[in-house]
Amino acid sequence: MSKISKFFKGGGSASSKGRGRPSPQEALARLRETEEMLSKKQEYLETRIERELAAARQYGTKNKRAALQALKRKKRYEKQLSQIDGTLSTIEFQREALENSHTNTEVLKNMGYAAQAMKKVHENMDLNKIDDLMQDITEQQDVAQEISDAISNRAGLGDEFDEDELMAELEELEQEELNKKMRDVRLPNVPSTSLPSHP
């Protein structure tokens, strides 16, 4: 059995084993902790990327080997950062899905309480009215099941974003940065005297 399958099948903490499945609140808390940890790692990697870029600039042509090593480290950190971005997106999606599932569970539980209350109110009704009531409850349970099925369908991560729109937005940001830099460029003054007509 691989380490990963051991982790998912039986590698949980002793407290989780004793109680069965974790509660939605516990799972949400763990997902939030993981998001926080990954966000800190993102900040750390972004700082390291900036340092390596500064080192590469500093070495420049003076020490090409050191500059190349700094750029290689920067690329590795960027790859890790990209992986963390993807993981964070997955965790955010999972957290949102879990929050929605928990909400739907509460709604369904309350619908069950309402159905029980309706039963109690209608105990003294005749059989035809009770049959009608049970049919209504069954229909509501079918609706609840459809909602639950719709929520549990796996949605494609990232499909809701148009890659071309994102690239266009990135190009706009890059152009803004370039425009800012161009504003700071000082050009030499044009001479006020006319140039000689012959060399």
Automatic annotation (TrEMBL):
GO biological-process terms attached to the record: late endosome to vacuole transport via multivesicular body sorting pathway; protein transport; vesicle budding from membrane
Compositional bias segments (type: Basic and acidic residues): 177-186
Positions of the UniProt region annotated as Disordered: 1-26, 177-199
Subcellular location: Cytoplasm, Cytosol; Late endosome membrane
Compositional bias segments (type: Polar residues): 190-199
UniProt keyword annotation of Protein transport present: yes
A GO CC term attached to the entry: cytoplasmic side of plasma membrane
Entry annotated with the keyword Cell division: no
Compositionally biased intervals (Low complexity): 1-24
Keywords linked to the UniProt accession: Coiled coil, Cytoplasm, Endosome, Membrane, Protein transport, Transport
UniProt xrefs under InterPro entries: Snf7_fam (IPR005024)
Pfam families noted in UniProt: Snf7
Membrane topology: Peripheral membrane protein
Protein family according to the UniProt entry: Belongs to the SNF7 family.
Name assigned to this protein: CHM4C protein
